[in-house]
Amino acid sequence: MRMERLSQDKIRIFLTFDDLSERGIQKEDMWREIPKVHELFSEMMDQAYNELGFDASGPLAVEVFAMPAQGMVVIVTRGKLDRDVESSSEEELEEEVYEMEVTLEQSEAIIYRFRDIEDAIGAAKTLNHHLTEEGRMYRYQNQWVLCFDPAGLETAGYNALIAVLAEYGEATSVTPAVLEEYGQLVIASNAVKVLAEHFA
Questions:
Q1: Would you say 121 and 195 are in contact if contact means Cβ atoms under 8 Å apart?
Q2: CB neighbour list of residue 39: distance below 8 Å, 6 or more residues apart
Q3: Fewer beta carbons below 10 Å: N end or C end of the chain?
Q4: Domain that holds residue 38
Q5: Same domain, yes or no, for 50 and 94?
Q6: pTM given for the model
């Protein structure tokens, strides 16, 4: 389980499928209200407090993104209490602390970000001619992002693609829709081939 702070009131948590299986949780369970999922969330909030000083009191907005082969990305945003605290009873405040709005999204796209263009080129050279020549490249939040449609990939090729991308970059929770709207499209198609051959 890895986490990072995005802002004063927002954190991002990366959960691998191993993290889930160790706790007896299946990917589909994240959509269900069951004790094991609540225990996992409590554990995440404890770790967030210990590592990042993130206090999970107050209403929380929780976004859960299911990423193919990588696991889950959980984004937790701390909201503000809407009503006057002094006019609320302690019991009402206790309920408010654990009020969560959960949003679940599942993306089939394989999306990895790279801090340096050299890392993206390294991944492309490894992938080119062996696994795929496809993909789109974006510039988003000062990082390079490669996006792949897994349709048509066999299981072995799919897993190999993930392995190579994970070696050079890291999975990101950004969705194709966000990249289209807020990112800058750098290479519209065959990004792997273009990167590998242009920077040969």
A1: yes
A2: 23
A3: C
A4: 2-106
A5: yes
A6: 0.59
Nearest residue to 135 via CA among 106, 167, 111, 159: 111
Find the distance separating the first CA and the last CA of the chain, reported in whole Å. Answer: 36
Domain end point (choices 80, 106, 132): 106
Residue 66: HSE in the Cβ half-sphere, 13 Å Cα cutoff = 14
Decide which of 44 and 200 is more confident. Answer: 44
CA dihedral 119, 137, 112, 133 (to 10 degrees): -80
Q: Which two tokens stand for residue 129?
A: 């001619």
Residues 84 and 130 in one domain: no
Does 140 lie in the same domain as 74?
Answer: no
Tokens of 21: 């299986």
CB of 78 within 8 A of CB of 100? no
Q: Are 126 and 75 part of one and the same domain? A: no
